Here is the input.
Amino acid sequence: MGTGHAEPASERHMRIGICCYPTAGGSGVVATELGKHLAERGHSVAFISYANPLRLGELPPRVCYHEVDQENHALLKQFPHSLSLTAKMVEVARTHKLQVMHVHYAIPFAAAAIMARQIAPELNLKVVTTLHGTDITLVGSSPSFKPVTQWSIEQSDAVTAVSRYLRDETYRQIPVKKDIQVVYNFIDPDRHEVRNPRCIPEKTSERQVTLMHISNFRPLKRTEDVVRIFARVRESMDARLVLVGDGPEYGRTRELVDSMGLSKVVRYVGVVDEVVPLLKAADVLLLPSETESFGLVALEAMASGVPVVASDVGGLPEVVEHGVTGFLAPVGDINAMAGYCLQLLEDCSSARRYATAARARASLFDYAKIIPQYERIYEQVLAGP
Here is the structure.
């Protein structure tokens, strides 16, 4: 990860396809923001997905979106999505004369892009694959998919991972020799307006504090731990919990809230396009995940001046500085995480110090330092054979 002043935009105009999941997860957010920033820097970008990416909204200049067809014919009910995706990639690449297809996830996107490259050899399309996490640690490493994941990585023209942890985990789980470059996720500091951090905000009572959790509510996010940590904090101070997102564990989490008598102090926001306005109301972000390949929401919280209390796993130690921008604890250690929350919330001067350090740390992940790294990778693969 670079430091110092932002680099100038690439002098070479490039035509880039970006394939990602359109949902609220970190990979889709990063891919969408990457495409928009590339367009701002003069490149042409074509998004390819089965639905409009959550943060794409109105199409900015030099950006287009193409939706993958969903076959409804009775004989094609089991039609693999990857084949529809490949066909759409070929169509879009030929239409826009794409030079690079940047896919965010090895399975199924990298495999589809490599097939598209073979179908349209006249384009000499380059494939750049970014690994985000579950494509390696959950899906790609399963015996059913590991050969495809390995092939997709080896056949890509360039491969990146969003953390050192994920790069090392890929090498550990999958027998690949391909060079994997670490390119961190990023934020736009200008979107995180600096606020005067307060540990006693005006909420339903003068002294109420706000703990927040943002995720897709998958089991590995351990949302029940979030509720139990919050309950421990409530024993010592007036606090509320704001839950942002939705997913498989949403119902179970809500049942636990009700059973613990916390329903009056827990707010459910659901899926939102932009989390920054919500983060401005938070005093602590809770992220007690079983694993995180990077932890984009932790970075977004820090950019908003919100300290993070998280699990000491995966790529999170590369984002959160323990004892400086927040705290890290072993997975499942509810008492430790609740104690760290209280340490942050009971002292206003301590809260301000952590908030300042969090913003400073987040600035190292400024998009103006990260986007040029991707541009260099595109230029390198285009200069190759």
Q: What stands out?
A: Confidence is low (pLDDT under 50) at residues 196-202. The two ends are 27 Å apart (CA to CA). The longest helix spans residues 367-383. The chain is about 40% helix and 15% strand.
